[in-house]
Amino acid sequence: MAGPGPARGWLAILCAGIMGVALVGLALGMGTPATAWTAPVSARPDPGLDGALPAPRYAEIDSRARGVNAHYHSDLRTLVSRTPGLAEAVDTSEESRRATLARRAARRAYAGAPPTIPHPVDANQVEACYACHGQGREIDGLIAPKISHQRYTNCTQCHAQGGTPGPGPELAIPNLFAGDQGPSSGVRAYPGAPPQMPHPTTMREDCTSCHGVLGGKGMRTSHPWRMNCVQCHAQSATLNQSYFGEEPPPPWAGQK
């Protein structure tokens, strides 16, 4: 019976060969100096892209200057708005008042109708409307009046584009409806008395929209520091449709 001697002999020879090869490789590797690392050479840029601006990071897009348009910005809050002082002189001429009323009437289908929008708008960005009309602004001679009612979230539901064109393109929408424009001034109980409101007060709860410091010429109040208008200026029961007795003549009947 043969013993394990020959098998162990061959195994010893194989292990010795493996160890020899490993020692030779280690010696060769340690004897050869490693080459220095060099950065990979990038492709040569296209000569046609000389002077091209590098792509900005997303965090830099809103604040980075962009060539010839670097002085433009889209933040309405940074626009300079001049607000007249409370004690500033007020234009109360009849000519200015009639001009303001005519401009207002040109942007309404009838007296009391929501005014049309004289400039392009984005119906999905209601915050852009409130940026100028939330508190009112005067920019470069143009007045963006303060809204006269409570805050709503869909301005274009009532205010349509059209009417008198502004500095932008013509946006007038033909309108053949002729409505009653109503009175141009309120009646007075006696000479020098506070005039009655010559219009309904529905959706006109904030009197400063038209008569405040940013009111149109001829319509701004001479005492904008007084905050309770109805204390002196009475509402018209006829115009507010709150009179339920015998129908009286309108308060402006017979007046010029």
Strand content: under 5%
Overall geometry comes to: rod-shaped
**What structural category arises from helix and sheet content?**
mainly alpha
The total strand number stands at 2
Spatial arrangement of strands, main beta sheet: 1-2
**Tally of contiguous helical segments:** 4
Pattern of helices and strands: HHHEEH
Radius of gyration: 40 Å
Low-confidence segments, given as residue ranges, are: 163-171
Amino-to-carboxy terminus distance: 143 Å
Please give the share of residues in helix: 10-25%
Provide the residue-averaged pLDDT: 76
Main sheet properties:
2 strands, antiparallel
Write the layout of secondary structure elements.
Layout: H1 5-31, H2 94-106, H3 126-133, E1 137-139, E2 142-144, H4 208-211
Antiparallel strand pairs: 1-2
Report on the architecture of this protein.
The structure is a single chain. The protein has 256 residues and is an all-alpha fold. 20% of the residues lie in helices and 2% in strands. It contains 4 helices and 2 strands, in the order αααββα. The chain has a two-stranded antiparallel ribbon with strand order 1-2. The longest helix is centred in the first third of the chain and has 27 residues, at 5-31.
